[in-house]
Write a structure and sequence with these properties.
The protein is of the alpha+beta class. 46% of the residues lie in helices and 17% in strands. It contains 18 helices and ten strands. Strands 1, 2, 3, 4 and 5 form a five-stranded antiparallel beta sheet that branches. A hairpin with a 4-residue loop joins β1 and β2. The protein is globular and about 110 Å long.
C-alpha cells in the first residue's frame, strides 16, 4: 500500500486536478451500481409473474432507447431506481444509499489521488529548482570575484579533461592527464593501474559517447571555489589480457559521475591555455611530465589552485549528494591558529594515505605508506600482515572510495589531531604461499577513521595544499616512496613537524561513530587513540550520521541477515531500494553474498542502530533517498518496513517517519519553486 498524506490544497491548479481526477471514477462507480440495479429489476419482474407485460413494454422501450443513446439509458436506469424504490423499498432504499455513498467515495478517492500526484509533481519540480538556485547563487558570488567567469567555457574545458582521463586510463599512461590532477586522484589512478599491470590486465575503452555535461553545483568559501560537474556517458569497455588481447570481462554500459574541481578564491578565469591543456596557467610554458609541483620556467606552484582548476575528486552518481559546508567540531578553532587549514586538503591527504595503505597491504611491507605515517605506525605494520594458519595472507584489490569526510579536529598542547572518515569497498583477495592471488567478490562498504597528527603551531603551506605527496617543505617531487627524508632539502616528512602525518587507522564501529558525532564542543588531544577513540563525555549536538546509499543498503542487508536468512521477499525489497538509489544489481548481490558468508562479522563498521531513536535517524535518511520523486513504491515501503521490524520499530513508525519526511521535502520544494520564479521575473 502506498502511503498517503493530506496536504493543503488551496490553489486553483490543485482544484482542477481534483475535478479531473475525481469525476471519472465517480461516474464509473455509479454506472456500475446502476447496471447492478438492472439485473435486480429484471429478477424482480420474472419472480413477480409480470414477465409478459413487462417484457412487451421492455421490448418497445428497448427499441426506443437504442435510438437515443446514453442519455436515454440514464433516464431508463433512473426510472428503474424509482420503480424499485416504490415497489420494493426494502431493496430500493438501501441501493440508493449505496449509490450515493459510492459516488462520494469515488470523488473523494479521486481528489485525494489528485492531491498526491500534485505533491509528487511539486517535489520533482522542487529538486530542479533547488539545483538552479544553488547554481545561480554560487555563480553570482563567483562572478563578483571573477568577472571573466563563463560557465559554457568551463564545461568545454571539463569535457576536454574527461576525454583526456579516459584515454590516459585506457592506455595506462597518466602523463597525458597528470597536469591537472590533485595528488589524491593521481595516486588512486597510479595504484589501480599498477595493480592491473601486475595482474596482466588492461582496462580497454574502445569507444565512449558523452551524452550530458553540466554544472551540478558550485560552492565558494574562504579556502576554495569548488565546481562539481555532472557527466553521463556510454562506453564500450572491456577488461583484456595485456599479453594476448583476449577479453576477460565486458564492463560496457552507461555511467554517471560527478567531477569536482578546486581553485583558490583569488584565481580568475584564463583567457588562454591552462592545466587541462597541458600548460602552466601562470606563464603558458608547457608542463613537464615529472609530476613536479612547480613550473620549470616561472617556478609557480602548478596545482595549488592559485591559477587554475585542479581535479580533486570523482564520485559515482550513487554516492553523490548535494554538498553543504559542514560544521566540523574544532575546525574553526584551528583556522584561527592556521588560516590556511582546509577540509579539502585533509581529505586529499586522507585519500592519498588510503590508496598507499592499500598498496602496502598488497605489497606485504610498509614501504608505500612510510612517508605519510609516523614511525610508530609503520613499526607495528607487520602485525597487520599476519598470515593465516595455511600460509595465506588477506587484503583487498580494486579498492574504491565512496566518500571522504573530515569529522573532527582536536587541538592539543603538543599535537593537533584530525579525524577523517573514509567509506570504501574492495575485492576480497588472498595471496597463497606460492604467490598466487585468489580474487573474490566485492566486499560490503566499510568505514574507517584515518587519524592524522601535526605538531601544534605548524601552519599550512597553501601552495602545496593539493600536492599531498610532494615534500611539504620545498614542494619537490617524490623520488623514493619509502624514504621519509626529502633528497632536496633534507626535511623529514613523517614526524609531524612540517605537515600532517598518519597516526592510526580505526574501524568506525557503532560506539566510535556515536562518540564522534555527539562529542564535546572543545576536544583536546590526549593519548593516541587505541582500538576505540578516547573522547570527552558526549553531549547532544543535534547532528546525525549522514548515510550514503551503499551504507544505507548495507545496513538493510545486515539487519535483515540478523536471523541468518534473507528470504526472497526481502531480497526483492533490497533490489527495489537499490534501484531507486542508482545502485546496480551486482552491488546488492555482492552484499547479500558477503553477509551470508560472514554473518554479522561486517556489522561493526556500519552505523547499525542500538536503540529506537538511532533507528529512526537511519530510517529518516533511507526514506529521503527513496522519496526522490515524491512517492514510495510498494517494494520500497516493504524494504523500509522489513528494516524497521528488525530494529523493533513498527509499520506505524515507518509511516510517521515517511510522512514527516515527505512533508518536509514538499515544503522545501514549494519554497524553491517560488524563489526560482521570483529570480526569473
Amino acid at each position: 500500500m502506498i502511503l498517503r498524506k493530506r496536504f493543503d490544497a488551496g490553489s486553483v491548479r490543485l482544484k482542477k486536478v481534483r475535478r479531473r481526477s475525481g469525476f471519472k471514477p465517480a461516474i464509473i462507480g455509479g454506472f456500475g451500481i446502476l447496471l447492478l440495479l438492472c439485473a435486480v429489476a429484471a429478477f424482480a419482474r420474472a419472480g413477480g409473474g409480470e414477465g409478459f407485460s413487462g417484457g412487451g413494454g421492455g421490448s418497445s422501450g428497448g427499441g426506443h432507447h437504442g435510438g437515443n443513446g446514453d442519455s436515454d439509458l440514464i433516464f431508463f436506469l433512473l426510472e428503474l431506481i424509482i420503480r424499485i424504490t416504490i415497489e420494493y423499498p426494502v431493496i430500493g432504499i438501501p441501493l440508493i444509499i449505496v449509490i450515493i455513498a459510492a459516488f462520494f467515495a469515488a470523488g473523494a478517492w479521486g481528489a485525494n489521488e489528485g492531491r498526491e500526484q500534485y505533491v509528487d509533481h511539486t517535489i520533482r519540480r522542487g529538486i530542479v529548482a533547488q539545483d538552479n538556485l544553488r547554481r545561480v547563487r554560487a555563480e553570482t558570488t563567483l562572478k563578483s570575484r571573477d568577472p571573466a567567469w563563463n560557465s559554457v567555457m568551463m564545461i568545454s574545458r571539463a569535457k576536454k579533461a574527461f576525454a583526456l582521463i579516459q584515454e590516459a586510463w585506457s592506455d595506462q599512461k597518466l602523463e597525458k592527464a597528470q597536469a591537472f590532477l590533485s595528488d589524491a586522484i593521481y595516486e588512486k589512478f597510479k595504484i589501480q593501474i599498477a595493480e592491473m599491470r601486475d595482474r596482466g590486465i588492461r582496462d580497454s575503452i574502445e569507444s565512449i559517447t558523452l551524452h550530458d555535461a553540466r554544472i551540478a553545483q558550485l560552492q565558494s568559501d574562504d579556502a576554495f571555489d569548488t565546481l562539481h560537474i555532472y557527466f553521463r556517458a556510454d562506453a564500450k569497455n572491456y577488461k583484456i589480457d595485456a599479453a594476448s588481447g583476449k577479453r576477460l570481462s565486458d564492463d560496457s554500459g552507461e555511467f554517471e559521475e560527478y567531477w569536482s574541481f578546486l581553485r583558490r578564491p583569488g584565481a580568475t578565469s584564463l583567457a588562454g591555455n591552462g592545466l587541462i591543456e597541458g600548460f602552466c596557467p601562470s606563464c603558458s610554458a608547457p608542463i613537464s611530465m615529472n609530476r613536479a609541483a612547480t613550473c620549470e620556467v616561472c617556478h609557480s606552484f602548478l596545482r595549488s589552485g592559485e591559477y587554475d582548476w585542479v581535479l580533486s575528486e570523482i564520485t559515482q552518481s550513487s554516492a553523490w549528494t548535494v554538498r553543504e559546508e559542514p560544521d566540523i567540531v574544532g575546525a574553526g578553532d584551528l583556522r584561527k591558529l592556521d588560516p590556511g587549514f582546509s577540509l579539502q586538503q585533509m581529505e586529499d591527504l586522507a585519500s592519498v594515505a588510503f590508496y598507499r595503505h592499500a598498496a602496502a597491504m598488497r605489497a606485504g611491507n610498509a614501504g608505500p605508506i612510510a612517508k605519510l605515517a609516523l614511525d610508530s605506525f609503520t613499526g607495528t605494520f607487520a602485525e597487520k600482515l599476519r598470515k593465516e594458519a595455511d600460509g595465506t595472507r588477506a587484503y583487498y584489490l580494486e579498492c574504491a572510495v565512496g566518500s571522504v569526510d573530515t569529522k573532527r579536529v582536536e587541538l592539543g598542547d603538543t599535537l593537533d589531531r584530525v579525524w577523517v572518515e573514509i567509506t570504501w569497498s574492495g575485492k576480497n583477495t588472498r595471496r597463497t604461499p606460492d604467490g598466487r592471488e585468489v580474487v573474490g567478490g566485492m566486499s560490503p562498504p566499510r568505514r574507517d577513521f584515518f587519524i592524522f597528527v601535526r605538531k601544534h603551531g605548524v601552519e599550512t603551506n597553501i601552495k602545496l595544499s593539493l600536492s599531498s605527496a610532494q615534500c611539504p617543505n620545498c614542494g619537490a617531487p617524490e623520488q623514493d616512496v619509502a624514504d621519509p627524508v626529502c633528497p632536496y632539502c633534507q626535511a623529514v616528512r613523517n614526524d609531524g613537524s612540517k605537515g600532517w602525518v598518519l597516526q592510526s587507522i580505526l574501524p568506525a564501529d557503532a560506539a566510535a561513530y556515536r562518540k564522534m558525532i555527539l562529542s564535546a564542543p572543545e576536544p583536546r588531544v590526549s593519548a593516541a587513540p587505541e582500538s576505540t577513540p578516547s573522547l570527552a563525555v558526549p553531549v547532544e549536538t543535534g547532528q546525525e550520521p549522514v548515510l550514503v546509499p551503499e551504507i544505507a543498503l548495507a545496513c538493510m542487508v545486515h539487519v535483515m541477515m540478523a536471523d541468518g536468512v534473507i528470504d526472497p521477499r526481502e531480497e526483492k525489497c533490497l533490489h527495489g531500494f537499490a534501484a531507486r538509489c542508482k545502485l546496480g544489481k551486482e552491488t546488492v548481490e555482492s552484499m547479500i553474498q558477503a553477509a551470508r558468508i560472514s554473518g554479522s562479522a561486517g556489522i561493526s563498521t556500519l552505523p547499525i542502530p542500538e536503540n529506537p531513536e538511532q533507528g529512526r535517524q537511519i530510517l529518516r535518511q533511507m526514506a529521503a533517498m527513496a522519496l526522490a520523486d515524491g512517492r514510495l513504491s510498494t517494494d520500497e515501503l516493504a524494504a523500509l518496513n522489513a528494516f524497521a521490524t528488525r530494529i523493533s520499530l513498527s509499520p506505524a513508525d515507518v509511516k510517521l517517519i515517511v510522512n514527516k519526511e515527505r512533508s518536509r521535502i514538499y515544503a522545501e520544494a514549494k519554497i524553491a519553486i517560488a524563489e526560482n520564479k521570483k529570480n526569473r521575473s
